[in-house]
Design goal:
424 residues, alpha+beta, Chloramphenicol Acetyltransferase, 5-stranded mixed sheet, 24% strand
Length: 424
């Protein structure tokens, strides 16, 4: 099941002593079409930034200045097939919807350095808040009001190692599409062709006309209801789903998380949310190269009493059923729900899995990352899954998983007890 971190390592650095040396904009290396890009209803609710850091050991043939220049050139080249990435998210005054102004305004690029070596940073797996210094947080990047969809920060360490930090709007990518983006970026940095040509047509996930909400959607919290529009009756076909290691891990986490509450209300209902990739579930399937957000939230709900007294297999089945529910018709119903209502995913806990995205497998000219992860800001209602590089670095497989849970001390003590109790 991996590792459960309760306390920070003793030698955890609180300040990486990062100095910014240069800030600039990178523009597409070729002229691109000026246009407005439609954003789906899935994209619309993901208007926030995601920060990731990718650590690289020293490479004798690629000192930091060379890596920085290669990276800068590759970004300029990738902004041609991914032209929207150099644009700006804006609100269409007529429709009230978010869209991307593909105006070639550029991607932010920051060059920085740390006074430490990569080894001195310590355990890269532990979610050190200091990693926030490795991504650029300046919303108004070079001038007030100009907010790039992405800002890249390249930080070198005294040992010759480096880290690439991305701060990018979630409207641009989901997990699978950003992995394809990184594969393409690495290929261009090596002067190779794209690994995959991105599909930028987000009309593929546009709502139907008229919208038809054919399922109840308790996984969303309505923020605003448009008068005169109501959901239709539930219905539609289910797709098949197999029990996966993700289902098993998620079921275990859900059980422990629901039961560690100090309220001890066994009649309380607990809902868990987790993302499901739509690409292969739609009819016809989306292109695997779809460069946008093609995930919806699956959910499972049960009373704490059921989670405590039921068998583990029954909890796993509830999680599996949540994924099984995501058919073509269900996904279209979710998209149409977003056309009629304003709302956000709603549950007691959200599992965000970075476990099998494969960021650490991207082969750059200067090597694969020693570790890749999001910059973590501890939130009680979000549980993160990461690959276990400790196991891999010791000669094992990459199948281990690290579970990151943030809770108050008393709830964490109870969670830890339940975590090991239910493993037996």
């Amino acid at each position: 099941m991996g590792s459960l971190y309760l306390e920070p390592p003793v030698a955890l650095l609180q300040d990486l002593k990062v100095t910014i040396h240069d800030s600039s904009l990178i523009f597409p290396s070729k002229e691109t079409e000026k246009r407005s890009m439609f954003l789906s209803n899935i994209d619309q609710v993901l208007n926030f930034d995601v920060e990731t850091v990718h650590f690289f050991p020293c490479h004798k043939d690629f000192p930091p200045p060379v890596v920085a220049q290669r990276l800068k050139n590759a970004i300029a080249d990738i902004l041609v097939p991914y032209d929207f990435f150099a644009g700006r998210v804006k609100i269409n005054d007529k429709t009230g919807r978010l869209e991307i102004d593909c105006n070639a305004a550029g991607v932010g690029f920051v060059v920085a350095s740390s006074e430490y070596t990569l080894d001195e940073v310590g355990d890269l797996v532990y979610p050190n808040p200091a990693f926030g210094q490795l991504v650029q947080k300046n919303k108004d990047f070079l001038k007030p009001g100009d907010q790039p969809i992405c800002i890249v920060q390249f930080t070198s360490f005294k040992c010759g190692g480096s880290v690439i930090g991305f701060s990018m709007s979630h409207t641009a990518f989901d997990g699978p599409s950003v992995k394809a983006f990184f594969d393409n970026l690495a290929a261009l940095a090596a002067n190779k062709p794209l690994v995959v040509t991105p599909c930028n047509d987000r009309q593929l996930l546009a709502a139907r006309s008229p919208p038809r909400v054919t399922f109840p959607h308790p996984e969303f919290l309505k923020l605003d209801i448009i008068p005169g529009k109501r959901p239709g009756p539930s219905g539609g076909a289910h797709s098949t789903a197999r029990i996966t290691s993700f289902n098993v891990v998620t079921a275990h986490i859900w059980r422990c998380k629901a039961l560690c509450s100090l309220s001890n209300d066994r009649e309380r209902a607990s809902t868990i949310l987790y993302a499901v990739d739509l690409r292969s579930r739609l009819n016809p399937p989306l292109p695997k190269s779809y460069a946008g957000n093609a995930v919806v939230m699956a959910y499972a709900t049960a009373k704490c009493k059921e989670l405590e007294e039921g068998t583990f297999s029954s909890v796993v089945e509830m999680v599996t059923e949540g994924a099984r529910r995501i058919s073509d018709e269900y996904a279209r119903s979710v998209i149409d729900w977003g056309e009629l209502y304003k709302g956000i995913p709603y549950g007691e806990v959200l599992v965000s899995s970075w476990w099998r995205l494969g960021f650490e497998e991207v082969e750059y000219p200067w090597g694969k990352p020693r570790y890749s992860c999001p910059v973590v800001y501890h939130k009680k209602d979000i549980v993160l899954l990461f690959p276990d590089i400790h196991n891999k670095n010791e000669g094992g497989t990459n199948d281990g998983v690290i579970v990151l849970v943030a809770l108050p001390h008393k709830e964490m003590d109870k969670f830890q007890t339940l975590f090991h109790k239910f493993l037996i």
